[in-house]
Design goal:
heterodimer; A: mainly alpha; Arc Repressor Mutant, subunit A; 2 domains; 11 helices; 0% strand; B: mainly alpha; Serine Threonine Protein Phosphatase 5, Tetratricopeptide repeat; elongated
Chain lengths: 200, 252
């Protein structure tokens, strides 16, 4: 995607495209906002890797709000999206030692609705974000097979699509992938932290 | 497969697929085990996440964009030269010399450009330097040998570093390339296979591609075809079209 085509989309295009998970729109949102998010993270004790994670989490939150019809923009998409990222980042900073309460803003922001705030701060939502992050680190083979299962395809279909030798193999492969995912999650220090928060 | 059976039990328990007796026994064992209760909680939450195909789809698309972007930054010099080498292969194949002398001209040459090399001096983008921890000096030295096309020396040093850092996939990849350059195709194949086993998303596609090229060089058409088919059947694969083209030529 080059610079010229990036700006051909309106806020409505973004919302409509995100609703259907249109790759082209998601790519446009990425290229139009990633610098903003990187700026936010880097100026506030984060790095580019944090910014990439932040971008993804903010997109998923926005997507959920669109699908559940809980999103009405009271500002531009850019300002709204920045506000989500900003709150998420504040939340993450607050968990670090030597809490940071103030943030150096790099863009205008708007107050979020209660349901948007809830989505950001709820511990089980936080854990879900962690699970998804580790899902993204699985081999593409594992990601595909788990997605096929999520789509409700039969073991037989899945064995065919993945070109596995047998249905039994497809099943045991799914177990392996899930085991692998769990192992990654449990090894993440953030997971323990999130559990401790819940138990407090 | 012991772990699998626990996983299976958990799933059956959560789905209610257990007999009353089995369930009682399983629950009794649970109550004694705090760890196990956490396991169940994780399992339940995971089911929610893994049950939402739309969110998984969105996540995979987001990762694809991120991956493409990081690959653009990191590997564009490699990719460009591999693409141009592709033309040789297609041309050689169409002239029917693929399996004979033509193959020998197919080795990709130009994968290490200045830009790629300089990347390793930027700490925030240096995959290799970051991951290897100790022994950074060796890595820089090895990469300098690679850069100077002294592939024999580079490969020796890569091997040594890899002994202590077997999971350094980036180095494993460059080592594979060095082996191709020194015409040690069996060793190269080993390297690329290790990368594939590791399932590191960043290098897997390239490793698959080079593996196919190695088999072509070795005139092992069966294995090459298998490997190319795999690449050609990937969804949105970077080398998909190129692999299809070679397959067509091979089948003529």
């Amino acid at each position: 995607m080059n610079k010229r085509t990036r700006f051909l989309y309106s806020d409505k295009d973004y919302l409509d495209g995100l609703k259907t998970r249109d790759s082209e729109i998601i790519t446009a949102i990425y290229y139009n906002h990633i610098d903003l998010v990187k700026n936010l993270a880097v100026k506030n004790s984060g790095n580019e890797e944090d910014a990439e994670d932040l971008f993804q989490d903010a997109i998923i939150i926005t997507y959920k709000k669109i699908v559940n019809e809980e999103l009405e923009l009271t500002s531009t998409f850019r300002t709204f999206f920045y506000s989500i990222c900003r709150n998420l980042w504040l939340q993450r900073l607050s968990k670090r030692p030597g809490k940071v309460i103030d943030i150096a803003d790099v863009e205008e922001y708007v107050p979020l609705s209660d349901s948007q705030e809830y989505e950001i701060h709820d511990e089980s939502e936080n854990r879900e974000r962690l699970y998804l992050k580790h899902f993204g680190k699985l081999s593409s083979d594992c990601q595909k097979i788990l997605k096929h299962f999520a789509e409700g395809k039969s073991v037989r279909e899945i064995a065919q699509i993945m070109r596995y030798k047998s249905e039994d193999y497809a099943k045991s492969r799914k177990y392996q992938c899930k085991e692998n995912l769990k192992k990654r999650i449990k090894n993440d220090p953030l997971y323990k932290e999130l559990l401790d928060n819940e138990e407090e | 497969m012991k772990k699998n059976s626990l996983q299976e039990k958990l799933e059956r328990y959560l789905k209610g697929d257990m007999s009353a007796k089995e369930m009682k026994k399983f629950e009794d064992s649970l109550m004694k085990d705090n760890e196990m209760l956490r396991e169940i909680a994780l399992e339940q939450e995971l089911e929610t996440v893994l049950g939402d195909a739309d969110i998984l789809d969105l996540k995979m698309k987001l990762d694809a964009i991120r991956y493409k972007e990081s690959r653009n930054q990191m590997l564009s010099p490699i990719i460009l030269s591999m693409k141009s080498n592709m033309k040789y292969i297609a041309a050689a194949a169409s002239m029917g010399v693929l399996i004979t002398a033509g193959v020998l001209t197919l080795t990709p040459r130009n994968y290490s450009s200045d830009k790629l090399f300089k990347m390793y001096y930027q700490p925030d983008k240096a995959v290799i330097v970051n991951r290897a921890g100790r022994g950074n000096v060796n890595i820089v030295e090895a990469l300098m040998k690679f850069q100077k096309k002294d592939y024999d020396a580079a490969s020796g040093m890569f091997e040594e570093i890899l002994l202590n850092n077997p999971d350094n996939i980036a180095l494993r990849f460059y080592n594979g390339i060095s082996y191709i350059e020194t015409e040690k195709y069996d060793e190269a194949i080993k390297s690329f296979n290790l990368i594939l086993e590791n399932k590191d998303n960043l290098y897997i596609e390239h490793a698959e591609w080079y593996l196919a090229l190695c088999y072509l060089k070795k005139e092992d058409v069966d294995e090459a075809r298998k490997q190319l088919l795999r690449i050609a059947n990937e969804e949105d694969g970077f080398y998909k079209e190129d692999a299809q083209k070679i397959l067509e030529k091979l089948d003529k």
